[in-house]
Design a protein that fits this description.
heterodimer; A: 341 residues; alpha/beta; Rossmann fold; Helicase, Ruva Protein, domain 3; 5-stranded parallel β-sheet; two-stranded parallel sheet; 16 helices; B: 617 residues; 2 strands
């Protein structure tokens, strides 16, 4: 039986570590606080993150910075249309040993890093994109019939550019679903832009310090898994996800109009996991309704498939998630009424 | 919350939660009780108003108990819908900003969650939230805006309790015709009662007439004691229907075919057209008139032919199993013979007296001789002959008798048919004139002939119909005495007398001599027939048969209403049926319907076929 002190210490350490990580990232990345926060939710929850933004907003830099701050093996894959799956996973090659004998040896691909940057992931063909599936979902990779486990923690950060559509291959739904979060990288504000200019147009600075090692990351992830979630909160997450399906009775009108397919079970799992990450980063041992509502957008936005009508009307999935959060009550109606009174 | 051994970290949370949840539940229960009381008092106020309206004054203050009952009901509902710990925890989290730490703690407080690593931290965080919270912040509001109904309801009940009760509502108006009528003497009913003394055609009719009389008697007794007006009107309506059915009963039912056959035979003789029409209408009074006319009008040869036709018609009726019709026709034949005989006698006597007659008598004799005269001329001649005979000296009478004997002797049975009396008649007349007793007898006979035709001189069937007609009028009078206008009843043949008979018949139906020149028979209001050039005020125009394109060119009965037509009736009574064939008023009307073809606008040449088509099976 654990005592209050044990878990509280783990929480405190997680909070202190995440604070250190944020500080270190902040030395390189100007602004983008919410993006950094959401990237950390992914790291803490043990999920993968898809960063979407226009070119030049610092997506790749952010990932490189996170990798630099973590004492983990970093690898980068630049996705191009001619990239092959074996370029990602690696392959068995014929090598000649010192004694002159020849044998096949595994030449591991960049997927075998701990922090993997899949840059411009939508530029590769679906075949190559799908080479990430096994690694992302099962933390393993099968090459030549032999399964190779990934070294934990395994964390994929992918970027994509929503503007350039020429020569791109939009990620299939199965691939998208593997990402815990889809983070939209916004343009910096005027102050942030000024600060970026000041920092980047002078002499290059030193790389940020490594503030978290492998064990610390794993400890934070373990604490995240231990966070308690009350049944009403899990029910709320379930209702939220079910309401995103237009076939469900009681789904909001906007969902019925603009959505073809809603989120699935993995979406609900992701909601709870991300909410747990939020509570860990805030030093809480339990999840609140607010946590679920806060993570709803990055968790669900890439899991909702818009209908033709939704696309034609220009309704974004963020608008739909907002409608869901607004229409699905967190508490039972009688309790809600008593609170409002 | 389940009882179980507690750890040091559990107790503070549990105690704090218990304290808060108790307060929350109590206030929620109080809110429900107040809501119940408010509903109870509103209903109570409504019930008090209803009690005031229905003049149950003593009940009004008790309606305040509705509030207490509502509060009890509210308490029961509160008990049943008592919040679970999870609901209270969610409420407390919402009110105290606990970020669902209390809700999570409630779950982790269970025994099976003891090994959860977050348990102790969550309980600690939840306890902190509860301990730091101001209990006032966690209290649910139990007073709602609609609880204002409690004082308002009480005030309303108090006000209604003090209000004076409303005035008694006026008693409901009795249904029309429900008033009691009490009449000591209804003369019209006597005419119906008198049907018991009328000769009946057969035993069945005897029974029916007796029943009619009996019913009228009973109605008279009831009216003497007092009865509902509508009931009396219904009874009279029934009597009228029964009388109408009785008037139309000749040739009814199984005898229908016989009647049709007889009509067919009569129609073969053009002289009997009026008679056939009268029989078709079952109007034997008109039949009598027609026979009387024929007796005056026809030459001997035609008369013989008419008699033969009547015989054949009677035979045809008998063959078709219509003995009543046959009997009526035979009687008419006999009447024709007798009337013709009487006529001849008068004419011969008049001729024998010759210049001894007054101018009036000569005129009447001339009319009779030419076939123009009727019963009036006959009466006049008889009166003048009596006078003339009285003035004769014994020698003159003797000479007259001898002359007549000579004429009788000269005849030798060679007289042409249709030219004066027979040899036997002449001899009979001469013998009467010879003896004093015979003269007296002749004078008496002439005196009798000079008088207007007394009652009972028509055919038996005609007399019966007259009595029934009287009875029907009596029913109408009785109806009038009850306070309603007597409704006209379509009478077969009534008012159908040809206009050229004006002045020949006694006016009206009371037997007083007519004033001449006008048929004084009173037309029924609303009927298109009133007979001849009478006063036609208020009548619809007579349908101009040939002018109506859709009708056949054959002779038609002008605009006669269907006999089954109900022109006015009191309200129906229990037991009367309108939908079962042959029962109740419908059954009585059905009898009247049987002669409908003869009285309708069906062309004459098609009546037989149409009648056969509608013949009841």
């Amino acid at each position: 039986m654990t005592t209050t002190g044990d878990f509280q210490k783990r929480l405190d350490r997680a909070r202190e570590a995440s604070a250190r990580l944020k500080d270190a990232i902040g030395q390189v990345i100007v602004g983008q606080g919410e993006v950094v926060e959401q990237a950390l939710w992914g790291l803490v929850a043990g999920g993968h993150v898809l960063l979407e933004g226009a070119p030049g907003l610092g997506k790749t830099l952010l990932v490189r910075t996170i990798a630099s701050c973590l004492d983990l093996k970093f690898s980068r894959i630049q996705f191009t249309p001619d990239l092959m799956p074996s370029d990602v996973t690696g392959t068995n090659i014929l090598v000649t040993s010192a004694d002159g004998s020849r044998h096949f040896a595994l030449h591991k691909g960049p997927i075998f890093g701990q922090v993997v940057l899949a840059d411009e992931i939508n530029r590769a063909t679906p075949k190559t994109q799908s080479s990430l599936l096994e690694a992302m979902q099962e933390h393993g990779c099968t090459i030549g019939g032999v399964r190779h486990a990934m070294e934990e923690p395994f964390f994929v950060l992918a970027t994509e550019n929503p503007i350039e559509m020429e020569g791109t291959y939009p990620l299939p739904e199965a691939q998208l679903d593997r990402f815990l979060l889809k983070v939209i990288v916004p343009s910096p504000t005027e102050d942030e832009m000024t600060e970026i200019l000041a920092r980047t147009t002078g002499q290059p600075k030193d790389a940020p310090p490594r503030v978290l090692d492998r064990d610390e990351v794993l400890a934070i992830r373990s604490a995240c898994r231990d966070v308690a979630v009350a049944e009403p909160i899990m029910r709320f997450a379930s209702r939220l996800v079910r309401a995103s399906d237009p076939a469900t009775q009681g789904a909001p009108d906007l969902v019925r109009r603009a959505i073809r397919y809603g989120a699935g079970v993995r979406g609900a799992q992701s909601l709870v996991l991300a909410a747990k990450a939020v509570s860990v980063l805030e030093g809480r041992a339990h999840v609140s309704f607010g946590d679920v509502q806060r993570v709803a957008k990055p968790v669900l936005r890439h899991r909702l498939i818009r209908s033709f009508e939704g696309e034609a009307d220009g309704i974004t999935t963020d608008q739909v998630v907002d409608a869901l959060v607004e229409s699905v009550p967190a508490r039972p109606e009688n309790v809600e009424q008593a609170i409002r009174r | 919350m389940s009882k179980r051994p507690s750890s040091p970290t559990d107790r503070p949370f549990r105690d704090a939660f218990r304290s808060f949840s108790g307060r929350v539940r109590r206030r929620l229960a109080l809110e429900r009780m107040l809501s119940g009381a408010a509903i109870g008092l509103v209903l109570g106020a409504g019930a008090a108003a209803a009690a005031w309206q229905t003049r149950h004054g003593a009940l009004r203050p008790w309606m305040a108990a509705g509030g207490a009952l509502g509060a009890v009901a509210g308490a029961i509902v509160a008990r049943r819908k008592r919040w679970r710990d999870e609901e209270v925890a969610l409420y407390l989290d919402g009110r105290l900003g606990g970020k669902e730490s209390i809700s999570t703690a409630i779950e982790l407080d269970r025994e099976d969650e003891r090994d959860d690593p977050a348990r102790a931290v969550v309980l600690s965080q939840a306890t902190t939230v509860l301990e730091k919270a101001n209990p006032k912040d966690a209290r649910p509001r139990f007073v709602r805006a609609y609880h204002l109904a409690i004082p308002l309801g009480l005030a309303a009940i108090g006000y209604v309790s003090l209000l004076p009760l409303p005035a008694l509502p006026p008693p409901p108006l009795p249904p029309p015709g429900a008033e009691q009528v009490k009449l000591a003497d209804i003369k019209g009913l006597d005419k119906i009662i008198d049907l018991a003394n009328t000769n009946a055609r057969d035993d069945a009719q005897r029974k029916r007439l007796d029943k009619l009389a009996e019913d009228a008697k009973k109605l008279r007794e009831k009216l003497r004691d007092g009865m509902e007006k509508r009931e009396a009107q219904a009874e009279i309506g029934k009597l009228k229907d029964a009388i109408t059915a009785e008037r139309l009963s000749l040739g009814d039912g199984e005898q229908r075919q016989g009647l049709e056959s007889a009509l067919g035979k009569l129609a073969e003789n053009p002289d009997l057209k009026d008679a056939a029409k009268a029989l078709g209408d079952r109007d034997l009074v008109s039949f009598d008139d027609a026979m009387e006319n024929l007796a005056n009008k026809l030459e001997k040869e035609d008369r013989e032919r008419a008699k033969k036709t009547l015989e054949e018609a009677a035979e045809a009726a008998r063959k078709q199993n219509a003995p009543d019709v046959a009997k009526a026709l035979e009687e008419q034949k006999k009447r024709l013979e007798e009337m013709a005989k009487k006529n001849e006698k008068l004419k011969e006597l008049g001729k024998a007296l010759g210049e001894g007659l007054s101018e009036d008598a000569k005129e009447a004799l001339k009319d009779l001789d030419s076939g123009k005269g009727g019963s009036k001329e006959q009466q006049k001649l008889a009166e003048k002959l009596e006078e003339a005979l009285g003035k004769l000296t014994p020698e003159e009478r003797k000479r007259l008798a001898e002359n007549m004997k000579k004429r009788a002797a000269e005849m030798n049975g060679e007289e042409a048919p249709g030219e004066g009396p027979s040899k036997e008649q002449m001899q009979e007349l001469a013998e009467e004139l010879e003896s004093e007793e015979g003269q007296k007898r002749l004078a008496e006979e002439l005196k009798k002939m000079a008088e207007p035709e007394p009652e009972g001189e028509g055919s038996e069937e005609g007399e019966r119909q007259k009595r029934l007609e009287e009875a029907q009028k009596g029913a109408g009078e009785a109806e009038g005495q009850l306070g309603g206008a007597p409704m006209p009843v379509p009478v077969p043949g009534q008012g159908n007398k040809p206009g050229n008979k004006a002045g020949e018949k006694p006016g009206g139906n009371n037997g007083t001599p007519g004033s001449g020149g006008k048929d004084e028979g009173q037309p029924y209001a609303g009927h298109s027939e009133g007979g001849g050039p009478g006063d036609h005020k208020g009548q619809t125009g007579v349908v101009d048969g040939p002018g109506v394109k859709s009708r056949a060119s054959g002779p038609i009965n002008k605009g006669k209403p269907m006999p089954g037509l109900v022109m006015g009736r009191t309200s129906g009574r229990a037991g009367d049926t309108a939908n079962i064939q042959g029962t109740g008023a419908l059954g009585q009307a059905a009898a009247g319907e049987l002669g409908a073809i003869e009285r309708s606008d069906v062309p004459e040449e098609y009546r037989e076929q149409v009648g056969r088509y509608f013949q009841p099976k």
